[in-house]
Design brief:
The chain is of the alpha+beta class. The chain is built from seven helices and eleven strands. Strands 1-7-8-5-6 form a five-stranded antiparallel sheet. A four-stranded antiparallel sheet has the order 2-3-4-9, sandwiched between helices. A two-stranded antiparallel ribbon has the order 10-11. The chain is elongated, with a radius of gyration of 20 Å. The structure holds zinc ion.
Amino acid sequence: MPELPEVETIRRGLSKNIVGKTIAAFASDTPKMLNHPQAFYRRALAGKKILRVGRRAKMLIFELSQENNLLFHLKMTGQLVYQGRNKCIIGGHPIKEGFQCAQNRFTHGEFVFSDKTHLFFNDVRKFGWIRLYSHRQLSDYLDSLGLGPEPLEKEFSLGWLKRALARRPKAKLKPWLMDPKNVVGIGNIYSDEICFYAKVRPDRRLRDLTEKEIAAIYRGTKIILKEAIKYEGTSISDYVNAAGEAGAYTKKLKVYQRYGKNCFKCRGQVAKIRLGGRTGSFCPHCQK
Ligand SMILES: [Zn+2]
């Protein structure tokens, strides 16, 4: 599943290309992907202009004219493909057939813009979804999720982090970082990298973290996520950036999926650890 840097990369790619466009038509063959019948979508979307492409956690938000919003979640296998006149922007999960800048058998949502360009929502496993909300419905829905702060916003401060960690003394660091009710957008990849940056084992109990370690976790979260956005995310097996290329942050990874290999810092062996149903990687020599 893409994490914050990958979804942010898709947001930036789409934002440059679809803001200002007017939706002329919409079609979908998958009712469960939508929160209203298709006819409702068609009526509501026709003639609406895309004002802004935003993001909350791992969801993309298209703000439309007349207080409408489209919320997208790519989930495990979703992909957004913008088919322009002379260019193609692909963001999300590649499909086995390779990158196609056209409708294909995994296309379950299609937006046609008034300038005849297209946006396709492709999804092999159909867990992804689109929701159409008014401003009010959108804010109610987002509130109902009980999400933690965006890690790159001011609300995720060192003071906030100290207080939040103190509320869950028995929790372990990596699963805590990966829970969107604590802080959003951090999954298996970036939680491993943040723990390595902070020199803290992923299974450390929160109550045992020192002030210095908490400060390092705070710094690492900001630095690593910003750096990953700069490199347009990480591509391991199932994610590409908004141009359909593998995210370049893959080359920057220090521990994620490197178990059994030598640590770049100490040359010792990177270990793996099972935590909360996920496999993490860490260096037992560099991380205490
Ligand atoms: Zn090491």
